[in-house]
Write a structure and sequence with these properties.
The protein has four helices and 35 strands. The protein has 506 residues and is mainly β. The relative contact order is 0.10. The chain binds 2-acetamido-2-deoxy-beta-D-glucopyranose (12 copies).
């Protein structure tokens, strides 16, 4: 319900700029570190306080490129810990997620921006390295396409081995994409990490909303002499990826029927598989323009005859490594040179998995029962493996279960939620030496329990006799509480000296 209402709200609260423009994207725009709402180019940016509970807001008053970049949220450098934004989403919605970073200078003179990881739900997304952009005075943007697996989606930052100062973030955007966009990718198994998106032969400022209804960023790629066309007016409705019309209004071409070599993307790629979409539209009405396309000498498409209505060519999982060169070679007999209008390339990255739903319910119940849950109890509890929640241990393999919970001596206040009963793979439950009160809930569903430590708390109510039926139980510490009732004699016999209770219970 929260999800639906919030998204509706975002849609309604965006003021349309004019009737001829497409409706604003169904988007959630978060201005990290801000305390008030801002409307920029008719779009609403929310402060981040409803979406995150940790970190420090930093407001630096210097001239910046974009109003949202003047505040950031910064997080302490803590290895193995992630800091997560959690936002409401449509379950199974396909989202374009964009993070932006504009370094605020850190705390020390001449400090370089930190390098760290970004994570979506349980999956590693990419390393954030803003050093080069910072050197040029630019902001850095990262974009990916991810499928929501539940009613919320998390984007987290985590330190990695290169991190030497506090990770931070300036902006976070979630745009709901149409179902047909990038639909040749199986988003159940993979996500897309944007490498480059260009409008060829275009030398203006970046193309985005409202030209692109999903506010994707199309950068100018104006190599050689760009040929600005006579304004090809292509209907984009037939394109699954719904590229902006504007991309078809400029092109990169050559006058003679000779080969064109396009170094694209410009940066060397790591060895992986990539999703590639190339966009073309004929602007002359000519029908004799035919060419072959190769990528690093491998045939991508032969005898392409570009129609005036435009065409898009896709590759779902194209292996690439290092520098890439696209070559367009006119077919013999073609009287015109090749042309190209736009291109998108994404790395196909694996979905890292997700903690079992029952464990998510269990841990979120526990979190709600604690008045002061650990600061990092957001995002996926088990994944990525190297940044699971404080005190949580998990199983390996494809069915990720919570096997251990150890929050000994964390000064926890509050109660032990009955939802602990959902953690059915739990073998060790250690919550000793805290300030938990209330009664101990029914634990009889926790058939895997081996050790239970709830000592040194303020639990009251009856002794948890539900534990008597757990075969695997080897160790039970309940002393220094205020429980009533007697230990079942079967437990006494089974546990022997591994049973510790207050005198009134024995
Ligand atoms: C940032 O600080 C300036 C000056 O102190 C203040 O006017 C502005 O409202 C602050 N911005 C935010 C988003 O807190
Ligand atoms: C970050 O980027 C800079 C500039 O490109 C590079 O010199 C540096 O090695 C990178 N750092 C890491 C940890 O990759
Ligand atoms: C992608 O979406 C288009 C338009 O809805 C549809 O025609 C096509 O079959 C879809 N492709 C896949 C692989 O689902
Ligand atoms: C996606 O993952 C599932 C489970 O691992 C597997 O059965 C399926 O074949 C995968 N699909 C693709 C297209 O890789
Ligand atoms: C783009 O290219 C056209 C034609 O070469 C030129 O007239 C125009 O000034 C250029 N615009 C920019 C922003 O460089
Ligand atoms: C392009 O075509 C659309 C309808 O297909 C029309 O609304 C628009 O005005 C046209 N634009 C130009 C520049 O001709
Ligand atoms: C492509 O082929 C040309 C000649 O056929 C060769 O010189 C070049 O090294 C090849 N490039 C790649 C990336 O394989
Ligand atoms: C284009 O591809 C076709 C089909 O593979 C091939 O016969 C033709 O020689 C190629 N043309 C050029 C100019 O490479
Ligand atoms: C998970 O796998 C790692 C090595 O891949 C191993 O060290 C660890 O003990 C395993 N954990 C469990 C709970 O099986
Ligand atoms: C739980 O944490 C405490 C304190 O850090 C430690 O002494 C104990 O061995 C841990 N228990 C398990 C099962 O790891
Ligand atoms: C989770 O635990 C609660 C309380 O014990 C129970 O009502 C609910 O059915 C459980 N849900 C699942 C999915 O196990
Ligand atoms: C223990 O519980 C009894 C009633 O159940 C209460 O009277 C007493 O004050 C409690 N003692 C402590 C130390 O909380």
């Amino acid at each position: 319900m929260l999800c639906f209402l919030s998204l509706l709200l975002f849609t309604l609260s965006l003021t349309p700029i004019s009737l001829s423009q497409p409706p604003p994207p169904r988007a959630l725009l978060i201005n990290c570190g801000a305390t008030t709402e801002t409307i920029i180019s008719g779009r609403l940016w929310l402060p981040d306080t409803d979406f995150i509970t940790t970190g420090t807001r930093i407001n630096f008053t210097q001239n910046v490129l974009h109003p949202t970049l003047s505040t950031v949220r910064s997080f302490p450098l803590l290895p193995q810990r992630k800091f997560c934004y959690v936002v409401p989403v449509y379950r199974t919605g396909k989202y374009l997620v964009r993070t932006s970073y504009y370094y605020y200078g850190g705390s020390g003179e001449g400090e370089l921006p930190p390098v760290f990881d970004q994570i979506v739900d349980g999956s590693f997304w990419s390393v954030v390295n803003t050093t080069e952009d910072y050197g040029r005075g630019d902001a850095s943007y990262y974009e990916g396409v991810f499928r929501a697996t539940g009613k919320s989606m998390s984007v987290c930052l985590a330190s990695n081995v290169y991190t030497t100062s506090d990770p931070f973030i300036s902006g976070l955007e979630f745009v709901l994409l149409g179902e047909s966009l990038y639909n040749s990718t199986d988003f159940g198994n993979s996500s897309l990490r944007l490498v480059a998106r260009h409008s060829f032969g275009y030398n203006g400022s970046m193309i985005s909303y409202p030209d692109d209804q999903f506010d994707r960023y199309w950068e100018p790629y104006g190599e050689n002499t760009p040929t600005v066309s006579k304004g090809t007016n292509v209907s984009i409705d037939g394109f699954w990826n719904l590229p902006p019309r504007k991309v078809f209004q400029t092109q990169w071409t050559v006058n003679q029927p000779r080969s064109m070599e396009i170094p694209w993307p410009l940066e060397p790629l790591r060895s992986s598989v990539y999703y590639i979409a190339l966009y073309f539209a004929e602007d002359t009405g000519a029908s004799s323009r035919t060419f072959n396309i190769t990528i690093n000498n491998v045939t991508f498409y032969d005898n392409l005859r570009v129609p005036p209505t435009g065409i898009a060519l896709f590759a779902n999982r194209w292996p690439l490594s290092g520098l890439t060169k696209i070559v367009l070679t006119p077919a013999s007999g073609s009287t015109l040179g090749p042309l190209i209008n736009g291109g998108e390339i994404f790395e196909v990255i694996p979905v890292g998995g997700r903690t079992h739903t029952r464990d998510l319910i269990g841990l979120n119940g526990l979190k709600n029962g604690f008045q002061n849950p650990p600061f990092d109890w957001n995002g996926d509890p088990c994944l990525p493996k190297e940044s699971s929640w404080t005190g949580v241990t998990c199983s390996n393999g494809s069915n990720i279960r919570v096997t251990g919970l150890n929050l000994t001596g964390m000064n926890l206040l509050g109660s032990l939620s009955p939802n602990v009963a959902n953690l059915t793979a739990l073998s060790d439950l250690w919550l000793g030496n805290n300030n938990l009160s209330g009664s101990i809930p029914d634990l009889s569903t926790l058939r895997m329990l081996k050790t239970v430590h709830l000592e040194d708390n303020r639990f009251n109510g009856p002794f948890p006799s539900s534990l008597a039926n757990i075969d695997r139980l080897q160790e039970l510490y309940l002393q220094s509480n205020n429980l009533t009732g007697q230990v079942p004699s079967s437990l006494k016999a089974k546990l022997g000296s591994n049973l510790r209770v207050d005198p009134q219970n024995s």
